[in-house]
Amino acid sequence: MYSNRLIFRTSTSDEVYYLKNSIFIKFNSKRNVISNSVLNGGFKKDLKYVFNHHLSQENIDYLENHDLYDYLVDLCNNYNFNPLKSTGLVTLALMKNLSIVSKKFKNLEVSAITTAGVRVNAVCAGDNASYYEENGKFKAGTINTILLINSKLNDNVLAEAFMVASEAKSVALNNLKIPSQFSNNFATGTGTDGLIIASNLDSNHSITNAGKHSKLGELIAKSIIESIHVAIKKQVWITHSSQSNVLVRLNRYKLDINEFYDSLNQDKHSFISGLQIDSRKSQNVAITTSILNLFDEVQYGLLDKNVALKLSNSILGNCKSYYVEKLLEYWINSFLK
Question: How many independent structural domains does the chain possess?
Fold first, then answer.
């Protein structure tokens, strides 16, 4: 069943396989697992398999009238994995865009296996809800990570690792300045993220703390951050370079760009051509970011709007691009006047 499909093996001989539209991991040691999956989620100590599964449009249509739990049970049965011994995640991200990152220190190893899509479903914790209760509905964007730790963690430490991994996901998105699609905030995740963490109960190396001061916490965070960055790049082509753009940064404070173009008393085509060039220049990105920071301060109630308006116009005075200056002028007047 596994012939020519093994793609990764951890130091504890856990095996990662690519099977059709899924990534399956077969444990070769006794594991305790924490998961937010609907299939054997929570804390478990008898699991043999974990997986991440790509949902095709056909799958999504099927799930409109069927239960996700039953779907995952059938999936395990189709792959000859015992569903009572398995837990897994689902996503619209393609498995070919998987990222695997391992971090080591002495005899400690952490491996993060991640898929990520953030263009449509990115959201900030605390944004207005999209639903009260939702059944069988999936959005195009999910960050799924399976984290494998070669050392032994008790359940409380496993829960601490889950917390640190979740915080690291927010750091990864903030590093790329990923905007929420539901507010003016930066995203802290997507609305459908999944996380599975497994430690090795057979290990003689027992760790009692996974917090941010600990080496384990550091390795968890660094592996999560790097794997998410790589997975996002592969899935949706978002990189540090692509985010260094005036238009991309302004998109967090959303306005109808066509209304701005229509307000111009000049040729639209020539203006857009000039703006596309100048929007990538570092000085213009820096000016835009500084002004947006003032927007944020007003939104969070940390700065008076009139003060922010005066400072924004002062910063705008340093802009050497006519195109970017006109664009920022429009945003400033819309949000601070």
Answer: 2
10/300 Cα distance (integer angstroms): 44
Calpha distance 179→311 (Å, rounded): 24
Using DSSP's 3-state secondary structure scheme, residue 291 falls into helix
Which positions ≥6 away from 62 have C-beta within 8 Å? 71
Distance CA 98, CA 94 (A): 7
In a domain, 1, yes or no: no
Residues 69 and 145 grouped into a single domain:
yes
Residues of the domain holding 250 = 244-336
Cα(first)–Cα(last) distance of the chain, in Å?
Answer: 64
| Whole-angstrom distance, CA of residue 227 vs CA of residue 18 | 17
Residue 240 region by backbone torsions, left for phi larger than 0, else alpha for psi between -120 and 50, else beta: alpha
> 77-112 pLDDT, tens per residue?
998 899 999 999 999 999 999 999 999 999 999 999
How many Å is the Cα radius of gyration of the chain?
23
**Strands (DSSP E) along 150-202, which ranges?**
152-153, 189-190, 194-200
Question: What CATH number is given to the structural domain containing 176?
Answer: 3.60.70
Of 197, 166, 163, 161, the closest CA to residue 47 belongs to 197
**What DSSP state is assigned to residue 278?**
H
From start to end of 55-170, where are the E strands? 86-91, 99-105, 108-116, 122-123, 143-149, 152-153
Q: Could you tell me whether strands 31-35 and 194-200 are parallel, antiparallel, or unpaired per DSSP bridges? A: antiparallel
Q: What is the pLDDT of residues 109-140, one digit of tens each?
A: 999 999 998 988 899 999 888 765 444 455 55
Q: What is the pTM of this model?
A: 0.93
